Amino acid sequence: MTITITAFERSPDRGRGLARDMRVRWALEEVGEPYEVRLVTFAKMREPAHLALQPFGQIPTYEEGDLALFESGAIVFHIAERHAGLLPRDANARARAIAWMFAALNTIEPPIFDRALATILERNEPWYEQRLHSLELTIGKRLADLSRRLGDADWLDGAFSAGDLLMVTILLRLKGSALLDDYPNLLAYLARGEARPAYKRAFAAQLAVYTAASAG
Ligand SMILES: N[C@@H](CCC(=O)N[C@@H](CS)C(=O)NCC(=O)O)C(=O)O
């Protein structure tokens, strides 16, 4: 059955792979499932057809036969449940990998995403510096704890899992900021994620979309 996901026709991140279709593309590449992409504009995302798939008018969505899903975490989880390679077989190890998926989405992503939004939308507010400082304090605490837990391991809990996949895509938003400077093990963790052939294929695919949109 054909898998179709949605992605931005012209991603605001200019092809840096930070939009959330990237994690879905990467998961599909890891498990070797081919997929098609329906590109959408911001206007299309507010139309009834898209809102029926994604109640908040966002990307990504996932369609496969009569299944339609939204929320990138739920989509990655679905892919990991249906195909080998992203979740361990052992029940306890699997539960721990799922806990890392939730940690990435619930504990690590919110302050990182809020910081990114603040730098775009709140830059001219009188309280901007204070807000940025407070978000960066929270992020710093999270990174320190994550770095301590990762230690010198390659991945968060044994073999690479969907938990690592989500964590890497989320932390990559900080690449180039000074926030990761104190954590060489997290930088190495990101580099390991980016070096995976499946990541590279997914990144190239989303970049090709942006490049084509810019040329057109
Ligand atoms: N929690 C959702 C967030 C989806 C989301 O924020 N998507 C962004 C692109 S990365 C989007 O569509 N933004 C446009 C908007 O919110 O209107 C998920 O993980 O799928």
From TrEMBL:
Top-tier EC class: transferase
List the source organism.
Rhizobium esperanzae
Please state what the protein is called. Answer: Glutathione S-transferase
Q: Which PANTHER family match?
A: GLUTATHIONE S-TRANSFERASE GSTA, GLUTATHIONE S-TRANSFERASE-RELATED
**Which positions fall inside the GST N-terminal domain?**
8-87
The record's EC number reads 2.5.1.18
Query: Which keywords has UniProt assigned to this entry?
Result: Transferase
Q: Which GO terms describe its molecular function?
A: glutathione transferase activity
The UniProt entry, under InterPro entries, shows: Glutathione-S-Trfase_C-like, Glutathione-S-Trfase_C_sf, Glutathione_S-Trfase, Glutathione_S-Trfase_N, Thioredoxin-like_sf
Which parts of the sequence belong to the GST C-terminal domain?
90-211
Keyword Nucleotide-binding among record annotations: no
